[in-house]
């Protein structure tokens, strides 16, 4: 589990690096806000393109191999980014797209590992802990990147962070083990997958073993995919409720991840180091709130104080309505500023107010780790007229990462649109108010969607 936490840290570190590096890069290459939004969204489009395949791989292929290959590929793409930027914008966009595709395996594979290794009554807190690694990586990127850029230029950010992924692989390959043996079916395809998993329980002895496991797993996966109830997944209202919350969450999250340092730099005239420092606290607080929410949710469910469905709806509502209020207040904060003059007492106060509102927004949003993120794991049965009903154990063990992959695919599209649209709005209006208002509306739509449609009652394992 700790290796999963570390890979979440590195995943966020590699992704957020661009939001800091884009400030000096835009000065060097003359990027407009629309272009900056396009660069940020290229990662997300790559992430979306491989989200469903990543969920399938996480379900049917040795998760150790899937995670290892993903980290290897995205680390290479990260280290290649400086050279790609020098070659031109299309090359950089292609590099960021490839990096997004590679990082897409992370969360579905973690979902699969947690669903297999962690007891039911502890899953929410462990998932919250691992997800908090994303916030920890974000904080690390904001803290370390300005220093690295000062000493090694913006090129150093991509080279150093990419190298960290390769160092993580040196721990993952010898130490990581596959999930416990899963009982999928008696078919030959399932037997082949089971053989691959049993072989993977022992520490890997080399690259050849991993490639053999991947080949066996992929071959079995092709046949096993026929048994996946795709129609049920795509038509079930509860899964679309999860997707709706995920979409709204990603819109706001992607906008903040991509634009926070730029916002403080443009709106308040903060330096790169000051902008990054102002962007740190929200993610620190978010990590603590997310973990605390996980423990509280487990207590409420295990003590029978609230049903699992009620807990998911409560925390997800907080996770969407809270940030919506913060975004609306931020849009008004700009109107109360000092007309773009930096360094005045009013501007400093406005900057501090903005930091506090972003802290609150991320803290509220972190409750999503107990909302849609856990709901996608704990959603264990869906009953449609004249269609099959999956048992809780069957769905948990086989389809957890596929469900997350499906909801993530549509939500990443939404987040990508939000990132790009923010850049367009900034170029057209030269104001942050419209971007914040649009984000607030998206949050509220997601809250209404999830609250009105998510009605599934989780069936806990015996």
UniProtKB/TrEMBL annotation:
The keyword Transmembrane helix applies. Residues 1-19 form the signal peptide. InterPro entries: MFS (IPR011701), MFS_dom (IPR020846), MFS_Na/Anion_cotransporter (IPR050382), MFS_trans_sf (IPR036259). It comes from the Eukaryota. It is a multi-pass membrane protein. SUPFAM superfamilies: MFS general substrate transporter. It holds the Pfam family MFS_1. GO terms for cellular component: membrane. The chain crosses the membrane at residues 37-61, 126-144, 156-175, 239-260, 280-301, 313-330, 357-382, 402-426, 432-450. GO terms for molecular function: transmembrane transporter activity. Keywords: Membrane, Signal, Transmembrane, Transmembrane helix. It is found in: Membrane. Residues 1-458 form the Major facilitator superfamily (MFS) profile domain. This is Major facilitator superfamily domain-containing protein. It comes from Tribonema minus. The lineage of its organism: Eukaryota, Sar, Stramenopiles, Ochrophyta, PX clade.
């Amino acid at each position: 589990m700790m290796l999963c936490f570390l890979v979440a840290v590195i995943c966020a570190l590699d992704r957020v690096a661009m939001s800091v590096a884009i400030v000096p890069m835009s000065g060097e290459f003359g990027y407009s806000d629309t272009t900056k939004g396009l660069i940020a969204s290229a990662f997300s489009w790559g992430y979306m393109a491989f989200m469903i395949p990543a969920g399938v791989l996480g379900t049917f292929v040795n998760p150790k191999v899937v995670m290892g290959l993903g980290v290897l590929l995205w680390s290479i793409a990260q280290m290649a980014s400086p050279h790609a930027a020098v070659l031109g914008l299309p090359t950089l966009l292609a590099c960021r797209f490839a990096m997004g595709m590679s990082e897409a395996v992370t969360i579905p594979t973690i979902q699969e590992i947690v669903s297999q290794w962690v007891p039911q009554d502890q899953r929410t807190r462990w998932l919250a802990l691992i997800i908090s690694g994303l916030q920890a990586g974000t904080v690390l990127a904001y803290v370390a990147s300005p220093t690295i850029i000062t000493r090694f230029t913006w090129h150093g950010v991509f080279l150093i962070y990419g190298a960290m992924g390769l160092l993580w692989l040196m721990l993952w390959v010898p130490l990581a083990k596959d999930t416990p043996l899963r009982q999928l079916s008696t078919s030959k395809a399932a037997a082949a997958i089971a053989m691959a998993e049993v072989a993977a329980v022992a520490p890997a002895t080399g690259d050849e073993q991993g490639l053999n496991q991947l080949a066996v797993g992929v071959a079995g996966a092709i046949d096993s995919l026929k048994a996946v109830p795709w129609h049920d997944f795509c038509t079930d209202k509860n899964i679309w409720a999860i997707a709706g919350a995920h979409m709204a969450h990603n819109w706001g999250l992607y906008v903040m991840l991509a634009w926070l340092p730029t916002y403080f730099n443009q709106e308040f005239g903060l330096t790169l180091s000051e902008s990054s420092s102002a962007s740190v606290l929200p993610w620190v607080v978010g990590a603590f709130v997310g973990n605390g929410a996980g423990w509280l949710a487990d207590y409420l469910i295990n003590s029978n104080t609230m049903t699992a469905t009620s807990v998911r709806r409560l925390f997800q509502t907080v996770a969407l309505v809270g940030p919506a209020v913060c975004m609306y207040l931020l849009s008004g904060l700009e109107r109360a500023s000092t007309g773009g003059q930096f360094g005045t007492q009013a501007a400093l106060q406005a900057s501090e107010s903005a930091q506090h509102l972003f802290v609150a927004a991320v803290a509220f949003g972190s409750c999503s780790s107990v909302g849609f993120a856990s709901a996608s794991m704990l959603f264990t049965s869906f009953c449609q007229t004249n269609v099959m009903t999956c048992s809780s154990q069957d769905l948990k063990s086989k389809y957890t990462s596929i469900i997350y992959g499906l909801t993530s695919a549509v939500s990443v599209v939404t987040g990508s649109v939000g990132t790009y649209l923010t850049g367009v709005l900034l170029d057209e209006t030269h104001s942050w108010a419209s971007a914040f208002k649009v984000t607030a509306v998206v949050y509220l739509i997601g809250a209404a969607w999830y609250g009105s449609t998510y009605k599934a009652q989780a069936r806990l394992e015996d």
